[in-house]
Design goal:
The complex is a heterodimer of chains A (240) and B (234). With 240 residues, chain A is mainly alpha-helical. Chain A has 10 helices and 2 strands; from the N terminus they run αββααααααααα. Chain B has one domain: MetI-like (MetI-like fold), CATH 1.10.3720. The chains are: A mainly alpha (240), B mainly alpha (234).
Amino acid sequence: MTTTTAALGQFGDAIDFIFNQHESPSGGAQVGGLSKMWDLLWPHLKLSGAAMGVACAVSIPIGLWLGHIGKGGFLAINASNVGRAVPSLALIAFFVAYIGVGFTNLMLALVLLAIPPILTNAYTGVRQVDRDTVESARGMGLTGAQVVRRVELPLALPLIFGGIRISAVNVVATATIAPLAGVVTLGDPIINVNTYGDEGRLAAAIVVALLAVVTEVSLGAVQRAVTPRGLKIQRREATP
Amino acid sequence: MIGLLAQLHIRENPTQSCEADNGFCPDWIAHNFDRYVDPFFQHVYLTVVALAIGFLISFGLAIIAYRRRWLINPVTQVTGILYTIPSIAAFFLLLPITGRGNTTALIALVSYVLLIIFRNVLTGLDNVPDETRDAGRGMGLTDRQLLWRVEVPLALPEIMAGLRIASTTTVGLATLAFFAGAGGLGEQIFSDITFKSNVVVAGGLAVLLAAVLDGLILVAQRLVTPWTRAVAAR
């Protein structure tokens, strides 16, 4: 019973930390409060957004192209398997030790983390487009580029966004350990607990968890929105 | 500051220039490999126990939901949220309740694999051809016999595929388990993140563990589903 109330008390303190300023346990500076939390959240979003932007710009065209020509499936599919096997902490540590700390280096590490699921899904998305549909598009006189843009891309969009969703949640989660590479994010209270105290650390964990759930839910909504109407009807008929 | 203290701790006597330069030093690795053995086995322990518990729970849920379809959506949503919450956040959210140590780490790791295995078991069962099911019924199998003798065996490739994804993911997440006070290879990486030798050995062991587990499950899958090989050979 006492542990339960103690646990509730800690969560209460953490919530309080998000909304109100506190003096740092190590003395001096003020920590906590909405504006200070925003100062941690904003670089977190900036870092994740930049990494996702670069990862999409690299992996979607390659995935579409490989899927279109029907080659490199081994590479596109195994990228995900290899990517999963490399722990994010090991990847970031490798970048810190070999390339150095800082925003750009860390962003590159996160880009490497984000590419595999998007690449695999873009490739699979194009390959699973009905071959008859592609053939009829060609029969209507569409060029290769037009087939990609008007037929394969729209039909692959749901899967591509599925990949983006997986990567984004992973990147947002991994950006939490960014302070190890010298970039202040929401992970700062977790890594530097002496400055923020236990309630600051728990507060950061709560915000990170919420951020990941919001990312997942909002990208899920985008995924449904970009699903071509024809595919939705097809799916409804497929599941009686 | 943390990094500095840890460096002193790991390299008591950085006389050689390679170590002082944070370099990749085969000599240092050969002499200090011992320090990675215990964290490695702790990592194996966390991964295997989390996989075993996670498999039992999600397999059970999938078997129940297979016959009671209305359960699929709520289970997917709940495990989906657990899957989405970053493990590093989950560790600290659990700390006030379960304290530092293996329990906290295992709860977070288990909660992460539930969705992966649940979804794959269910997909595997759903993909069993209707004709096969009818043939089983025609032979007089009860629902229970049909499930365990026909449907589950035929779903094995899909189930094992889920287990493989879950195992590599868990190895990766267990590198963060030291935040929950459960040690593992991540603790070694974290203890001296700028020292190339340390990062390569600890990170390399984690990747190796993921690859070995993946290979073992693949071999197990081949052994328990000999018919898939026969089809491929034809």
